[in-house]
Structure formats: structure tokens, C-alpha cells
Amino acid sequence: MLSATIIEQLRAIVGPENVATERQDLICYGYDATQMEFLPSAVVHPANPQEVAAVLKLANRERFPVFPRGAGSGFTGGALPKAGGVVLVTTRMNRILRIDTENLIAEVEPGVVTETFQLAVEKLGLFYPPDPASLKFSTLGGNVAENAGGPRCVKYGVTRDFVMGLEVVLPSGEIIRTGTETYKAVVGYDLTKLLCGSEGTLGVITKIIFKLLPLPEAKKTMLTIFDSIDGAAKAVSTIIGAKIIPTTLEFMDYATLQCVERRFNLGIPAEGRAVLLIEVDGDRDLIEKQAARIQELIAPLGLVQCKVAKDDAESEALWKVRRLVSPSLRDVNPNKFNEDIVVPRSKVPEVIRRIEQIQQKYEIPIVNFGHAGDGNIHVNVMIDKEVPGQEEKAHQAIKEVFQAALDLNGTMSGEHGVGLAKQPFIELELSPAQIATMQAIKLALDPNNILNPGKIFPWKEFSDAA
Fold this sequence. Notes:
Number of helices: 16
Oligomer: single chain
CATH class of the domain at 96-214: Alpha Beta
Strand content: 15-25%
Distance between the termini: 6 Å
Radius of gyration: 23 Å
């Protein structure tokens, strides 16, 4: 436990009302979207970079760990306080500081909710494309820390591609700025890119400068159903090979379709084996041509059904099929392990077949959907923890799923990061030299291992300061 003296010093830094130590309050910050839970010793809610810096300086003096946290929507335990210590919540820093319509940039604090920011810039005719599934509640600081993705990444890229600069409190408590507000900058190392995706292990983000784009004039949505996974995958490569880059190319396999249809009875054709939800955006006349051309290209590839939205309401109706996936999965089994492997686009059918073999081997359901345009498949291993042995089978199956992705020149994580959940498997993908290099960077910036210890790669365990 943290000593009473340390608790009092934390209260002096952020205000007594912004420090929580009661068990019922601590529980709220001890879990995320994973199935893991750890209890912190205290939770603090700083209001500005100076308060963050003071907390980290205190942590270095007293040797207790600090775990940065946004909305707690992560899927790998990246914000969980495994070593106890202090959870540092950034949601009080939630202002959109400025939106520059001349230079197409914005400056925000880390606690701004992703969708709130998107709507604010769209009112000004601008566009922030990254759209993680958690956008209605995830915060931008967390998005940057995890390098979040989303369906629109196939055309526009991930969060890192839109971060131009950061204000960051280093583990030592020093406040620095990285990057610039210009589109070109090559002075020194690119610390912005290093920090983006570092999962809160190298610094606490307190401000972000984002690049913005002009808001596309229109969009066109199509729900296409194929008689095989190979047909759907071939459709992806055919569309992109024809030099059309859709905004989204969302994929659902047969197991996913069965889940959705069983619960919601949407009238999906019985011969349907895979779905692509395709959306294009841009100039109104251009997207009409692109939509027509896409239909021509995919017609010979085992297309069973193609629904094209005529307006925004119909577009939302088509997207409903994709959004109903998560609530329908619990009908398969009550507990879910959600992984996010990535393979080259052309290898999607092969990795799905490998996953089907793994499912048969361990006799546990595995449901697959995700972003086919960039080969990012969300692999959902569904189990019932009350059934003896199923959780052990799940972990064995997950390891084999990761290996399957790596065998196909892919990666074991495209969006969710490593955190705690994937840490045991990191040596499957990274060499000892790669891991040692990363640990050297961590050690240089955080010699006392104060900030988010134990995440990404193994590190010594902490015990709370006395």
C-alpha cells in the first residue's frame, strides 16, 4: 500500500477531490475491455501537464509505479495497474484547444473523446479519419498511445499518420514538445512517431497536434455477400488492383454471419459464406462511378447479393449488420478473447483456413471479422470459463493463431497493442536484439521503471512504496 504521506502529497498536487483511495472507487479503474483485473492503491485525476509532472516526480522519489489511463477501453490490459501503485487518469484534460481551418490542424488535450473531436471538425467542413470501434467513448490520448486504427485505415491510415506533434511528460517529470505544426520537419529523431504506439511506457501525453483533411463531399455504402471466403478476398484485391481505394472494406466470415442471423434474423441468404461491407467517399460523381465499377468487378467472384445504399439512412441500415456482430457473439459462449492479427491482403483466405483448423483442433468456437482492406482480422475465441479446461485451450489456440499470422508474413497485433495480454507471446514476433533495443530506450527515458511497468515486454515486478 502507498503510505499516508504519499497519499497526502498526491492530494496536495491535484486536489483532495481528485484523489481516490476507497476500494469501491479503485475497482472502477482496475479493469478494461480484457478479462483481467488489478486493484491500484490510488487513482489521481490531474488537470494539466504541471500536475502530471509533479505526480511523476513524486513517483521517482518514492519509487511507486504510475499507470496512465484514458477511458479504459483497451483490449490488451495496457492501462491496468498490475503492480498496484497509482492510476493516472487523463479525462479531466478534455479540451479542444483550437481548430485551424487555414493550416488544417487541430490541438487537443488527451481526454477528448474521439467522436466528439470528429464531430467538431466536421462542423467546419474538416475530417479526422481514424475511427476505432470504441470512438464513442475512447479518448484521443489513448488512441495515440495505442496507435488506434479502425475501418477507414485502408484508405486514410492509422492514428500515427495524423499526429504531427505532442506535448509529453516524460517519466522523469520533464515536459517536452515533439514534432511541429508543419508538414515537413527533419530536425533530430522523430520522437512523435516513437511515442505514438508506445502504450504509455515512455511518457504521458498531455497535448496532441493532429493533421486534418477536407471533409469528403459524399459517401456510398454497399453490403456484398459472397458464396466463399475466397471470393470475398479476391474481391478485395480486385477492387484495389483496379486502382479504387475504398474508405472501408469490412469483412465477416461464415461463423460471424451465423451469429448475427441467428439472433437478429436479417434475411442473409443461406448460401452466403462471407460479407464485405464496402464504402467509398469523395466527390459525388466520382463515387457513383466507383460504386458502379466495383459492382462490375465483383459480380463474377461468387457474389450472392449486393445491396447499395441510396442515402445516409440506408447506409446506416447496412452498417447495422457489422455493428450487431459484438452483441451476437455472446450467444456462442459467454467469454471472449479478442485478438487482432494482420496478414497481407492476399493471405486472408489462407489465415482463415488455418484458424478453422485451430478451432477444430481445440474444439472451441472462433469467430472472425475485421478490416479486409488492410488484412486486419479480429479473431474472437469464444469460451465458457465455467467449463474446465476451456481457458487453457483458448490460450493455446491464441498462440497458434499468432504463429499462423507470423508464418504468413503478418503480425500478432494491428490495433490493440501488446500490453499484458500479448506480452507472453512477444518473442514469437520480435528477436532478442529487437526487444533489447526497445528495453534500452525504456531504460534511458525511465531508469527507475516508474511509468506503466511490465507492459509490452517483461520487466521486474514492483511493490508499492511503504
